[in-house]
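In this supplementary section we document a worked example of the pipeline. Step one takes a protein sequence of length 71 as its only input; no multiple sequence alignment statistics are reported here. Step two produces a three-dimensional model, which step three serialises into structure tokens for compact storage. The input and output of this example are shown verbatim.
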Amino acid sequence: QAFTGNEVIPALVVTDTVNSKSLVMGYDYTITLSNNIAISTEDQKASITITGNEKRGYTGSRTIEFKIIEE
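The serialised model returned by step three reads:
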């Protein structure tokens, strides 16, 4: 992701592979972002955590790191 000086939110496609359907953020799952404004370093990368909405039948979470780079 390119540095903008603002919060960087990566584009996501979250899919229920059992039912072959795309999930909707804020309804089927939520996201939590960390360190997603400054340029990433080796010690500090940005991350996004995707958490399933248990009321919709989705459980668990996954955290993915990404880098914010200066272009």
